[in-house]
Amino acid sequence: MGMADDHPLEDLLDTATENTPGDKVSVGDLLDMWEDRTFGPVFTLLGLLVVLPPLGAVPGLPLIVGLVLVLFAFQMMVGSTHPWVPQFIEDVSVSKKKMRKAHKKAHGVLYAIDSWVTRRLSWVTSQPARQVASGIVMVLALTLIPLEMVPFAVGIPGLAITTIGLAILARDGVLMLLALGLSLAAFGVVGAALLA
Which of 7, 40, 55, 184 has its CA 20 to 30 A from that of 176? Predict the structure, then answer.
Protein backbone atom coordinates (compact mmCIF):
# COMPACT_ATOMS: atom_id res chain seq x y z
CA MET A 1 0.00 0.00 0.00
CA GLY A 2 1.48 3.31 -1.08
CA MET A 3 0.43 5.20 2.03
CA ALA A 4 2.61 2.95 4.16
CA ASP A 5 5.81 4.14 2.48
CA ASP A 6 6.09 7.92 2.97
CA HIS A 7 3.86 9.53 5.59
CA PRO A 8 1.45 6.80 6.74
CA LEU A 9 -0.29 8.73 9.53
CA GLU A 10 -0.66 11.98 7.60
CA ASP A 11 -1.72 10.15 4.43
CA LEU A 12 -4.20 8.04 6.38
CA LEU A 13 -6.03 11.07 7.76
CA ASP A 14 -5.89 12.86 4.41
CA THR A 15 -7.27 9.81 2.58
CA ALA A 16 -10.08 9.28 5.08
CA THR A 17 -11.07 12.95 5.00
CA GLU A 18 -10.72 13.78 1.33
CA ASN A 19 -11.55 10.50 -0.46
CA THR A 20 -14.95 9.85 1.14
CA PRO A 21 -18.28 11.37 0.06
CA GLY A 22 -20.29 13.95 1.98
CA ASP A 23 -19.26 15.98 5.01
CA LYS A 24 -18.82 13.01 7.36
CA VAL A 25 -16.56 9.95 7.46
CA SER A 26 -18.37 6.75 8.40
CA VAL A 27 -17.04 3.32 9.37
CA GLY A 28 -18.63 2.00 6.18
CA ASP A 29 -16.70 4.56 4.11
CA LEU A 30 -13.44 3.31 5.61
CA LEU A 31 -14.28 -0.32 4.90
CA ASP A 32 -15.19 0.50 1.30
CA MET A 33 -11.96 2.46 0.89
CA TRP A 34 -9.52 -0.18 2.12
CA GLU A 35 -11.56 -3.34 1.43
CA ASP A 36 -9.42 -6.39 2.24
CA ARG A 37 -5.99 -4.78 2.02
CA THR A 38 -5.20 -4.67 5.72
CA PHE A 39 -6.62 -4.14 9.17
CA GLY A 40 -3.76 -1.73 9.90
CA PRO A 41 -5.47 1.44 8.60
CA VAL A 42 -8.64 0.65 10.57
CA PHE A 43 -6.74 0.09 13.85
CA THR A 44 -4.65 3.21 13.28
CA LEU A 45 -7.50 5.54 12.41
CA LEU A 46 -9.87 4.29 15.12
CA GLY A 47 -7.07 4.57 17.68
CA LEU A 48 -6.43 8.15 16.57
CA LEU A 49 -10.11 8.98 17.04
CA VAL A 50 -9.78 8.55 20.82
CA VAL A 51 -6.30 10.09 21.04
CA LEU A 52 -6.58 13.33 19.04
CA PRO A 53 -8.43 16.35 20.45
CA PRO A 54 -11.23 17.29 20.00
CA LEU A 55 -12.34 13.84 18.78
CA GLY A 56 -11.47 11.92 21.94
CA ALA A 57 -13.73 14.17 24.01
CA VAL A 58 -16.87 13.39 21.97
CA PRO A 59 -19.32 11.69 24.40
CA GLY A 60 -19.89 8.05 23.54
CA LEU A 61 -17.13 7.89 20.92
CA PRO A 62 -14.70 5.74 22.99
CA LEU A 63 -17.54 3.25 23.61
CA ILE A 64 -18.36 3.00 19.89
CA VAL A 65 -14.70 2.85 18.87
CA GLY A 66 -14.04 0.17 21.48
CA LEU A 67 -16.88 -2.03 20.23
CA VAL A 68 -15.85 -1.61 16.57
CA LEU A 69 -12.23 -2.40 17.40
CA VAL A 70 -13.22 -5.56 19.29
CA LEU A 71 -15.13 -6.75 16.22
CA PHE A 72 -12.25 -5.99 13.86
CA ALA A 73 -9.52 -7.35 16.13
CA PHE A 74 -11.37 -10.63 16.73
CA GLN A 75 -11.80 -11.14 13.00
CA MET A 76 -8.12 -10.50 12.32
CA MET A 77 -7.11 -12.76 15.20
CA VAL A 78 -9.01 -15.71 13.69
CA GLY A 79 -7.51 -15.10 10.26
CA SER A 80 -10.27 -13.22 8.43
CA THR A 81 -9.04 -11.11 5.50
CA HIS A 82 -12.03 -8.79 5.14
CA PRO A 83 -13.56 -7.01 8.15
CA TRP A 84 -17.33 -7.17 8.67
CA VAL A 85 -19.46 -5.06 11.00
CA PRO A 86 -23.25 -4.70 11.42
CA GLN A 87 -24.97 -1.98 9.39
CA PHE A 88 -25.62 0.24 12.41
CA ILE A 89 -21.87 0.36 13.09
CA GLU A 90 -21.11 1.03 9.41
CA ASP A 91 -23.33 4.11 9.75
CA VAL A 92 -21.38 5.57 12.71
CA SER A 93 -19.61 8.70 11.49
CA VAL A 94 -17.43 11.65 12.50
CA SER A 95 -17.65 15.04 10.79
CA LYS A 96 -14.87 15.92 8.37
CA LYS A 97 -14.62 19.32 10.04
CA LYS A 98 -13.61 17.65 13.32
CA MET A 99 -11.22 15.32 11.46
CA ARG A 100 -9.50 18.28 9.78
CA LYS A 101 -9.31 20.20 13.06
CA ALA A 102 -7.72 17.20 14.80
CA HIS A 103 -5.29 16.75 11.90
CA LYS A 104 -4.27 20.41 12.02
CA LYS A 105 -3.68 20.29 15.78
CA ALA A 106 -1.62 17.10 15.58
CA HIS A 107 0.25 17.83 12.33
CA GLY A 108 3.67 18.36 13.94
CA VAL A 109 3.49 15.20 16.04
CA LEU A 110 2.16 13.08 13.17
CA TYR A 111 4.89 14.36 10.83
CA ALA A 112 7.59 13.55 13.39
CA ILE A 113 6.27 10.02 13.85
CA ASP A 114 5.98 9.49 10.09
CA SER A 115 9.59 10.54 9.55
CA TRP A 116 10.72 7.76 11.91
CA VAL A 117 8.51 4.94 10.61
CA THR A 118 9.93 2.61 7.97
CA ARG A 119 9.78 -1.04 6.89
CA ARG A 120 12.15 -3.10 9.09
CA LEU A 121 12.28 -6.32 11.15
CA SER A 122 9.45 -7.64 8.97
CA TRP A 123 9.31 -10.93 10.89
CA VAL A 124 7.83 -9.01 13.85
CA THR A 125 4.89 -8.05 11.61
CA SER A 126 4.42 -11.50 10.06
CA GLN A 127 0.92 -13.01 9.92
CA PRO A 128 1.23 -14.91 13.25
CA ALA A 129 2.64 -11.79 14.95
CA ARG A 130 -0.20 -9.66 13.55
CA GLN A 131 -2.73 -12.14 14.92
CA VAL A 132 -1.16 -11.90 18.38
CA ALA A 133 -1.15 -8.10 18.08
CA SER A 134 -4.83 -8.13 17.13
CA GLY A 135 -5.57 -10.05 20.33
CA ILE A 136 -3.83 -7.30 22.28
CA VAL A 137 -5.86 -4.67 20.38
CA MET A 138 -9.04 -6.51 21.34
CA VAL A 139 -8.17 -6.35 25.06
CA LEU A 140 -7.09 -2.70 24.79
CA ALA A 141 -10.34 -1.88 22.98
CA LEU A 142 -12.35 -3.42 25.80
CA THR A 143 -10.62 -1.08 28.25
CA LEU A 144 -11.86 1.96 26.30
CA ILE A 145 -15.42 1.24 27.42
CA PRO A 146 -15.03 1.69 31.22
CA LEU A 147 -12.26 4.29 30.79
CA GLU A 148 -14.63 6.66 29.03
CA MET A 149 -15.73 7.68 32.53
CA VAL A 150 -12.15 8.64 33.51
CA PRO A 151 -11.00 12.01 32.06
CA PHE A 152 -8.29 11.61 29.36
CA ALA A 153 -7.67 7.96 30.29
CA VAL A 154 -8.77 6.56 26.89
CA GLY A 155 -5.80 8.28 25.28
CA ILE A 156 -3.33 5.75 26.72
CA PRO A 157 -4.81 2.52 25.28
CA GLY A 158 -5.81 4.56 22.21
CA LEU A 159 -2.15 5.41 21.62
CA ALA A 160 -1.14 1.75 21.96
CA ILE A 161 -3.86 0.72 19.47
CA THR A 162 -2.77 3.44 17.03
CA THR A 163 0.86 2.31 17.27
CA ILE A 164 -0.04 -1.34 16.64
CA GLY A 165 -2.13 -0.31 13.63
CA LEU A 166 0.67 1.85 12.27
CA ALA A 167 3.20 -0.96 12.74
CA ILE A 168 0.95 -3.31 10.74
CA LEU A 169 0.30 -0.65 8.11
CA ALA A 170 4.00 0.22 7.65
CA ARG A 171 5.33 -3.32 8.30
CA ASP A 172 7.60 -1.77 10.92
CA GLY A 173 8.79 -4.43 13.36
CA VAL A 174 10.60 -1.95 15.59
CA LEU A 175 7.39 0.04 15.95
CA MET A 176 5.50 -3.19 16.72
CA LEU A 177 7.91 -3.93 19.58
CA LEU A 178 7.42 -0.38 20.85
CA ALA A 179 3.65 -0.86 20.54
CA LEU A 180 3.80 -3.99 22.68
CA GLY A 181 5.72 -2.05 25.34
CA LEU A 182 3.12 0.72 25.18
CA SER A 183 0.39 -1.90 25.55
CA LEU A 184 1.95 -3.23 28.76
CA ALA A 185 2.16 0.33 30.10
CA ALA A 186 -1.45 0.94 29.07
CA PHE A 187 -2.60 -2.18 30.92
CA GLY A 188 -0.82 -0.93 34.04
CA VAL A 189 -2.40 2.52 33.82
CA VAL A 190 -5.83 1.02 33.07
CA GLY A 191 -5.57 -1.26 36.11
CA ALA A 192 -4.59 1.65 38.34
CA ALA A 193 -7.41 3.84 36.98
CA LEU A 194 -10.07 1.18 37.44
CA LEU A 195 -8.90 0.24 40.94
CA ALA A 196 -8.65 3.85 42.11
Answer: 55
